[in-house]
Amino acid sequence: MKRSFYLFNPGIMERRDNTLKFTPVIVNEDNEEIKQQPRYIPIEDVAELYAFGSLRANSALFNFLGQKGIPVHFFDYYENYTGSFMPRESLLSGKALLAQTSAYQNKKKRVELARKFIQGAAWNMVMNLNYYNRRGKDLQDIIDTIKRLSNTLPDAKAVDEIMGIEGNIRQAYYAAFDIILDDFNMGSRTKQPPENEVNALISFGNMMCYTETLRAVHQTQLNPTISFLHTPGERRFSLCLDISEIFKPIIVDRVIFKVLNKHALSTSHFDKKLNKCLLNEKVSYT
Fold it and tell me: What's the mean pLDDT in 57-69?
């Protein structure tokens, strides 16, 4: 079964027949590179690669990955998503592109679609909160607030109004995190960089959800740059931002609640420096 591979260490990636060879590299105090024990990954086991450390590779490797339909997602030092290598699109459709563009240009249709994304997200947030509310966490007031805000979405006549309602819904939802979590506090939502463990997990999980959505969209005839909730912009796949809004509560947030409350992760899995908190390489062994 194919799965995702996460490369947290800097290193060299090469092709060896139908196998990927990854050699981690460390730099000593004399600025000398020391190659570590290489790891071999059969290509048929790889769904996609996530590169969090510096990755050295040549065009032959990317040609090979492109032929096998394997994307590579890149992240910077602060674990912010910076871009992806995506295999050539094989499902291009002019008819689908015209229909998607037409839906974006039609204000009524765009507002309708944008509303659906947030209604789906709010529904899943409430599902999460109901689960913990039934298990002794006092979340009913927050649930009622999100439902009340969600009920105002049909009255919104513009995407900006919908985004404003979404912001209020998410603010109420994030207030529940400190009630749900037993040993960690989130406080307010901080990013670029995140300031504590919970915010670090949210940022990391949201990026994973975004890249998984991007991979799924590339397997359809949809154009990932034409979106309805988020404004289409240069150098970003904004449709993936739209779609991932629905899934973040049930994929990202549920996992965060589970791994922290079951102590699968601890403070040792994070590096805190000044006002930033990032996951460290220990996570790859968890």
Answer: 93
Residue 273 has pLDDT above 90, yes or no: no
Q: Which residues are annotated as a binding site?
A: 166, 230, 245
- pTM over 0.70, yes/no: yes
Topology of domain 94-285, per CATH?
Answer: Four Helix Bundle (Hemerythrin (Met), subunit A) (1.20.120)
The DSSP-derived string for 127-161 is HHHHHHHTTT---HHHHHHHHHHHTTGGG--SHHH
Average pLDDT of every residue of the chain: 92
Q: Which residues are annotated as a binding site for Mn(2+)?
A: 166, 230, 245
Residue whose C-alpha is closest to residue 176's, from 118, 121, 128, 246: 128
Task: Provide the sign of the torsion angle of the four alpha carbons 158, 159, 160, 165, taken in this order.
Answer: positive
Dist CA 133 CA 179 (whole Å):
10
CATH architecture of 3-85: Ribosomal Protein L15; Chain: K; domain 2 (3.100)
| pLDDT value at residue 90 | 59
